[in-house]
Amino acid sequence: MTPVLVKIIAGFISTIGFAIIFRLKPVHWLLAAIDGLIACIIYFSLVDVFENVPLLPNLFAALACAFVAEIFARIAKTPSTVFLLPGIICLVPGGSLYYSMSNIINENYIEAGHSLLLTVEVAIAIGGGIIAASILKTVIFKTYDAVKNKMKK
Prior knowledge:
The protein has 153 residues and is an all-alpha fold. It is built from six helices and no strands. It has helices at 3-21, 26-47, 55-76, 81-88, 94-105, 109-152.
């Protein structure tokens, strides 16, 4: 197995783990895991494309994850955060946050600043993707509902 495939499978499994930690109903575990799987696939597909801009893979993966969570929420008739929170976990920049704290403790302030800046950039990209998906969902679903209601008349 390739290292990327292992990471994608680990993302799927870790999403199920966080679904359990967040006390999701067992019925929602698979949908949450699929959401996390989609986020991982998009992220690892785009990492090589955007080598020098680490926030773009996170932005697009978060956008897809949040949009899929909105769709799953509509299907399962539950809030989208049920699927979004476990699904987005694999995108959280834990490594760079760890290195930031480690460098602060070791008094490497310049390296800590670089790591912390990367962490903040990725967090902003994830938040931006979630907000963009929410706006996109509102536009698409309201348009769909309006067309559907117009067709009934």
